[in-house]
Prior knowledge:
Blueprint: E1 19-22, E2 27-29, E3 32-43, E4 46-61, E5 65-69, E6 92-93
Amino acid sequence: xxxxxxxxxxxxxxxIYDYLVPVTAVWQENNKAYVLLLETExxxxxxxxxxxxxxxQILDKNSSYAAVSGNSLSADCQIITDSDRTVGxxxxxxxxx
Length: 97
């Protein structure tokens, strides 16, 4: 009606995802997505960090983050999100803060 006003609020329900990672942590190979997990291995040289490939499914993503799921992921896994060199499955890596 003329002279009347109303206020409306629109909300959108968002999915809740278990694992959100930076898009820089997700790689593609042969049409499959994967992340590199940081695993600790005891060697004759002492404790070393090894990069291990873990296949994931991309559930959703934006320009900054990707929601992923995968059998190899757990709440305490460490995912390699950035590197100054090319890192592949089985490579020895150093962790920096």
